[in-house]
Design a protein that fits this description.
mainly alpha; elongated
């Protein structure tokens, strides 16, 4: 499961935006990337919606089955 995140992190952020001048710049870029990964990235498991779109749709109409919230915990 960790490889599902580590590989894109390394490819999309570390290698693409490097070389890095300071550890602080890596840390800040990592925080921004993690926020994007968790909130703005289109997810195939969410029918190509972002987690924020799914959550907003769920709370706007909790009875709607159109966009179900992402599952928590192991499958």
């Amino acid at each position: 499961m960790a490889e599902a995140v580590n590989n894109p992190y390394d490819t999309e952020l570390i290698r693409r935006r490097g070389p890095w001048q300071t550890i602080e710049k890596v840390e800040l870029a990592t925080l921004e990337w993690v926020w994007w990964w968790n909130n703005s990235r289109l997810h195939s498991k969410l029918d190509m919606h972002t987690p924020i779109e799914v959550e907003d749709a769920y709370y706007a109409d909790p009875g709607s089955a159109q966009l179900a919230p992402a599952r928590q915990g192991p499958r």
